[in-house]
Amino acid sequence: MEKPEDISLEKWTETMVSNWLRSIGIKETYIEKLHEEEVDGRILCELSEEFLKKETGMKSGPALLIIKKRDELVNNSQKAQGQHELLHKQSSGKNDHGASAIKNTDTRANINEEKNKEEDSVLVVTTKRDSKLRPFYMNGVDFTYVKNSVLLPESGVNDLITPCHEYKSFAIAATLDRQRLQAKFAKEVLKFATGCINVRTNGTIHFGVMDSRGDTGYVHGEIIGFPVKEKDMYYDSLDYIGRSFSSSDSELVRLCISEPQFVKVVCSNNSVEHYVVEVDIKPAVSIVKNKVFSVSLPNFNEKANKVQLEKKTAYRRVGSKTEPVDDLNEFYQRISFRDAQREEAEKRHHFTAPELSQNLGKKLKMLITGGKKMMDKEKWLILVTNRFQEKDLQHIDFLLNMNIFCVFDFDPDSNISGLCHEYNKHHAVNRHFMQNYKISSGMSIREFESHLRLFDQTSWIFCNGRSDFKGNEPPCDEKTWVKTKRTLLKDCVSLICKDILPKGTFQVIFLLTSPVDTPFKNTFYEFFTDMEGHEDIICLAESEENFKDWQTSALESCDMETVNSSSVVGMTISQVNATLQQVQPTTARATKLLPIHVKGECFLDTREEEKRCSLEILSLNQCEETIPDVIESEKEKIEQQFYHGGKLTWMNLLLADKKIIGEVIQRDAYNDVSSLVKECLCWSFDRAPISCINIYHHPGSGGSTVARQVLWNNRRDLRCAVVKPSYSALAVSEDAVWLREYEEKDPQKCLPVLLLFEDCDQEYLEDVKYELEMAVNTKKIARGTLCFILLSCRRSHNPEKMCKESPQQNVSITHKLSETEKEQFSKKRQRLEERFKPEFILTFVLMSEEFESHKIAEYVKKFVKHLLQGIDHKSVVTKLVLYVALLNTYVQNSFISLSHCEALLALSIHVDRFRRHAFETSLSEPAKLVLIHLRDENTYINSIRIIHPLVAKEILQQFLGDKQQQSDLALDLLNNDVLFEHRFGKDHYMKFLRDLFMTRRRISKGDELDSFFSPLIEHVRENECPDKAIELLKVAYKRFNEDALFAQHLARLNYKHDRFEEAEKWAKTAVAKRPNNSYILDTKGQVYRQWFAAKCKAMEQDEKTPENTVDALETALKAIESFQECKKAAVEDNENMNNAGFVGVVEVGCAMMKLMRTLHVFSRRKSSELIRYLLTDYIPVEIEKPWGNFHCKLKNLQKIMLEALEWISEDLSYFQTDLNTNEEKTCDTAERAIKHSMHWLVNMSSAYGKCFSDPSLATDQIQGKLNPLMKRILIYSYGGGNITTIFSLLTNQKDGNPVSVLERIISLYSSKPMRAQMPQSDLVNYIASHFALSCLSTQSSKLAAFQDLQKLSNRFPKEKERCLPSALFLLVLLFWPEEHDTEDEKEHKYETVLSAVEHLQRNYDKKLKDIPPRKKRIYTHFFLSNGTGFEKFVHKSKFETITKLFSVSEKRLKWFSGEVWKMPEMSKLLRCVTGWTEDEKVFLEGPKGIKFHIPALKSSSIPHNNENVTFYLGFTLKGPVAYNITVQT
User: Fold this and answer.
1) CA-to-CA distance for 316 and 326, rounded, in angstroms?
2) Which of 148, 194, 502, 1159: disulfide with 984, CB 3.0–4.6 Å?
3) How does pLDDT run across 1444-1461, given as a tens digit for each residue?
């Protein structure tokens, strides 16, 4: 049979693996699980940590241990084999020790050989930790051992006071019956005791500890323990003293031998408690002087079946053994000498100076601060506690100043009378249960954090029920808790430690204020396991008894020394409170101040502030709670951080105000913004309640600094706050309203609130503004009262252009410095360079150089060149810098979390994990210069970025050079598993990585231009090659779980480079994954459209035939089919309006018509041949067979093009088209945005008409003979055809004579329309044409009488739900009552109007879907004037003559602010209608007292009281709306 030591690891059986796992201390449950999974030696070699966690549910700690020990085993197997052979040779013929202990500094390595010699035996090199001995004469219940840890070797006589030690395994003897056990125990104790007494030394004999005598499977001194059935058996066994010693000696010996001490052995695998039984021997000289003791040892005789006493023998300690005295006479002669020695030793021991008490205060400070002078104010704390004593609740100030992330509270009454109740008096808390810490599917970590408000308010987790909770959460006993809640605790702790808080960013404090129970103890194990160690766990306990109980459980996971070194035992809560307040950076219970309307101040309640999560409120005394010592030690670091590229902090401004650091330069733009703020504060009756100021700035030009300076210097006159854009617009609005009214008596008399929005989308800003307007209206704030100033700070590549568009509310900040600024910057730079090296204030240096292209490029180039000299190109730190540079170059505001950096660095240098404090020391000097640390002001989690985008860009250029392309670096970053799979900060990292490959440039986002792909992809395809760009996106597609949007981008990229087969494949892939996404369906259509265009281009020089055009036409029809699918998906989508499918159908249809016209079969004859083919059943012979597969589709082309045009026309007739030109388009929007929708519709309507009509048909003689369809098509070719294009003739009068065009359109309709059978759409266009013509020429001969049109409108369907929205709109215009109407006429007209308006509103609601009205503002076509008939309406185009002197942005501002209505020209042009307001609704009076509700275009303009008002009436496809509502005086 093969010997076990000859078996290689790969050949181990499953049992061998199980034995090995036991030897390294793995739990039995995990061992059984791996045995079930049939893990043998071969599989053990391939195991990964991830497999162990997923398949066995194993915690990170044991999984890491198995992998580490497995690797050691593999690496040292040959060495271990050699050691085994050597030991085997040395031990042959010897019978003393089967194994020897080899001691390291803090671990013990040993050769572990199983007792049995069966096949499943295995030789393993393992490590076992040392254990301290129970202190001599300490009570056994106050101490514990951990199984398999190792005590110091057996020892002999030292100084007589230090005890010598002897070990006995006692494993077999412990199983004997009472008589045999007592005889065995007494024999060993009395023999050892006699030996110790006779040489006058203290000693302890340990039962349950391996002495290696025959125990070849264990290390000498290894703690095993054994079950103790009855403790009295061991006490009673010492009764043998009376029988074994002479009567005179027995009493003395009893005084020297202590009672047995039972020391508990901690082991998670034991179902029965194990103990080590120890007996102390203390031979005081006063007892044993001049005596030599002999003993008759008891021994159980199996033959006689009774205990017999051996021959009386005197024993002595010789080294680590107890042996008989050889020469008794000689031994007697030296007895007086031994007594003298003992006496001297006792004197020395008694007169030794008492041990100084431990400095617990210093220890507590060291543990909490990590050895620093002050606590880290950015470190989170997790508190684990049970029931607080009432006296202790008065001393919790030290907790109030800590950043407590969450509290695991095991006190069910905590919310009524415990710590939660007391803490909640000072801070807001979110009360949770452990089951709340479960993430639902599809929710990201960031969403989960926001959902529970984890970083905004302390999460109070009631771990064992809550007695005042009316839900089903009662407290339960220990056994029930373990069954029902242990798993919840495990999941809760695991989520916090593995997904939310990175290691090193938090500490766990166990606060033992009451006796501990099993659930409380379990919490330590869960944290210890998930935190992979004990270094950030602290225990504070006043009661030593409570601590011992907790310690016993803690020792299952770590050793005694570790537990004790991180615990403070004996300090009361009041002492802890006083001690820790000395190392806290802020004063206790500091209170913030806010300004009030009557020029005083009020206190800002901390709890209330914490509930307003969406705002960072700036107080009057911001940062002043920081103690002077902290300011003194941090001031230089704060200043240097800012000038190195960090964001301006409130502490910066406070220290500058107090002259502690240098002043922060105010750029000229600061005065501009301040002036605009002052203008906002000037009262005016027409002042809107919400004002907006926009700062547009070049990246790195100090825009954010200016904005924060404005807030800082206005904090005494306004209430100021920075908005956190991660919160919804509604949440921001609610918090802003609260801030305005806080501690103010009257909502009408409050200070305005200045809100800063940094790099927020325009849409988000509009949403907040809308919510604030709604709130102001609800509060009924008096008109002219300024409530909020929204200060938006956004980066832009052309700030000056943005400023010129609206100088009344925009301020630009560029890199260019004024003469005053140049002087300020020059002086400041000189002062800074006296204290800092230029590279440490690089950002300020760049600003002082004005970022001039030639100067700055040269400066940055030199800086980076110097930086890269001698840098290790292969080091992981260099790789990290390149990764960050790549992200910072291409993704705005990107960063990499410190946790990600640590994971990357730790992996490369083969250590378990980099600690936070070691990160900077791991960086190279160049890396320290270019990386700047950022801190999330909400979570305090740190991250890094390059100090400036220009430096990031230059690093890439210089480092990569010609050798390596950026695509290779991007690919390397994408494939980096450590960064991609790292769990902390994953949401941010994944977003930045996704943006790197997906997000396109947008002018609206401050970019220089709009791009078709992300900047990186654009760079790679233009400067490297398209193949590289495609490869990058393919890898990204796989990396991001085959995301449909990456497939969509691949389709785009391929068709841009004429790779249409690949583009088709990727488009189909994207559609298969998201079949209802209209934007992806649009991309599919664009693939075929571009493919069709390419095929047409390829045939340009060839003669077109029916045969060679088949392929192109089939491709075009595929495009139309895809666009129709896009149309259908867009109509069904309730959250977006996407007209790309409708646009695509029209444009591809026109392109097809152009191609077909070039065929000889259609070009040789009259052009009507093609129209005849498309609009009738006729098919020319030449194309009958080649085009046989798609005749039906081509004959349907006119119909689907017309439907698309009518849909777009209706959409444009409802909504304004100039609002969203600057709005951001997300990555899945249509392929291209039509900037001027109205112009497009007019042009394409005309193109459609020309495609399907013959120019020869335009003569008057032929027009009369045309069928209705051809007439409609001809009307389209003239520019008519739908209500939108007809009314557009009023606004676009540059091309031709619109009067003649309208007359020509009208002439195509029947001269006797009342007799003609016109469909509803023709009726609408006919009447609309007359309205348009009346606006241009009331004298035209073609203009029908107004009354005739009223009569004609009776031809509209009687059931209003069957009417087109445009028909209902015209009914409102036609039947709007006039002054001279009789009461009956008015009543009839009102009935018609009210019925039409009711259905208009319904149609509008359907058209708007779920899109907020502010995003799709209704378009007003006409306004009520002072005339009658046609003249009682004025088209909006008429206003152009009044506002033509203003710029586009000024016009828009005047319309939005309402200033345009105050112009005298308007009062002449429009009729002022009288009405009243009631319950904040506007009404007109109809006949017989009928109330006609007129919606206000701006709800904020409605007076809050019931008032008589005047207003202007506008007419929209939603119905009439009220403008310029004014209270009658």
Assistant:
1) 10
2) 502
3) 666 666 666 666 667 778
